[in-house]
Amino acid sequence: MEAHFYLPHSESFVKNPKGSAPPFVDLLIKELNDAKEIYISLFLFNNISLYRALKRLAELGTLINIYTIPLNGYDDKKVRAFDGSKSIDVSKRQYAEWIVKDIITENININYYLVPHTNLWSKQKASRGNNSYALHNKSILVRYHNDTYKCISTSSNLAVGDPEKSENLLIIDRNSDIAMFKKYFELLGENSIKLDNYQKFRSKHEDSHLITTPINLRDDYESCYFTAPFIKYNNQGSNHFVQNKIIKFIASSKRRLFICSQHFSDINSYDRNSKSTVKAIMDIARKNPRLEVKIIKQTRESHQAQGGRSTEAEEALIGFPNVEMKFWYPVLHDKFIIVDDEILITTANFTPTQFAWAEKHRMRYHDKEIINTFSDINSFHFVNDKDLTDSYISHFNSLWDRGERISL
């Protein structure tokens, strides 16, 4: 297993044509070069450089499956990307539309799937807009010609139009991760719609009309999990199941507990059946006063339209003498938790909706009520490897040095 990190050289809002972490695109292209099969699950898929590399591989016979959200989920606002020689004013959606058009008109041998499942707790309480798409994770499964596999997860959206941010990328080949990734992509395929069929679907339905029914999996995956509306573990909703794993992980802290997340507000969840990672931190900080607790995030209440819970989380933790908090706006985008010499690497933020789960939940869109499963889609890797953890500690320290202390 190996980890890669990216820190932008400045806090400017300049956009790079390769996205928020340009070196990761080059790294991925290299990793995918000898692939027999590639399965890609990306919240946003509009990276032209990555698409062109995949297109070349498809022409050579590589099987490529891409799963992403519909175009309605992309920002229409034009942004200026600068590649060092010229500037281009294009929106995130326009880049994605160009890729879709190229796949259709050029008859590219790429299987392109849309994941239209949307979440709505209430009109005011969805974390990424009223009609928020569930797919948020950024993960890739690669099968090579020698029948070996690699699993890749990254904090980066890899989206053209995003400013450069701090990011991390994990490449791992444990059997547990490979088994979970295979099952995830199998189920994702069953709960997505291929591009040509999606156009027919949209002629009669809204994205929110796609109903997802979860299936139950036994917890045979040990250290790698996905939350998704189509997954339960041991008869428990995947988001609740994974949150319990994280709370147990936090509770095992003896020397250090370092948390890094773009958003950190998992307190007083909208879901009454969900717990709270913030309260888990409070419990262990109170129980073990010698525990070193550091939390760094990107956003505070003033940076979010509905940021009140960010302040609630800060107020809950600020009184503990062994807890320090910082923020680095607008750059920090990593998502991981370090416990002693172990680490959780995830594509998820720690918010009131991330660990919410509700099967047969009533979601009201305009004048239509849909009964569906509420769940955000993300990946989670629990890793017990000191060398890997040390590399993340070094990255955390680099972020910490750049952060601004939180005081109320």
From TrEMBL:
GO molecular function, one term: phospholipase D activity
EC numbers for this chain: 3.1.4.4
Reactions it catalyzes: a 1,2-diacyl-sn-glycero-3-phosphocholine + H2O = a 1,2-diacyl-sn-glycero-3-phosphate + choline + H(+)
InterPro entries attached to this UniProt entry: PLD-like_dom (IPR025202), PLD_domain (IPR051406), PLipase_D/transphosphatidylase (IPR001736)
An individual GO BP term: phosphorus metabolic process
Superkingdom: Bacteria
UniProt keyword list: Hydrolase, Lipid degradation, Lipid metabolism
PLD phosphodiesterase domain segment(s): 328-354
PANTHER family: CARDIOLIPIN HYDROLASE (PTHR43856), MITOCHONDRIAL CARDIOLIPIN HYDROLASE (PTHR43856:SF1)
Homology family: Belongs to the phospholipase D family.
Protein name: phospholipase D
Species name: Bhargavaea beijingensis
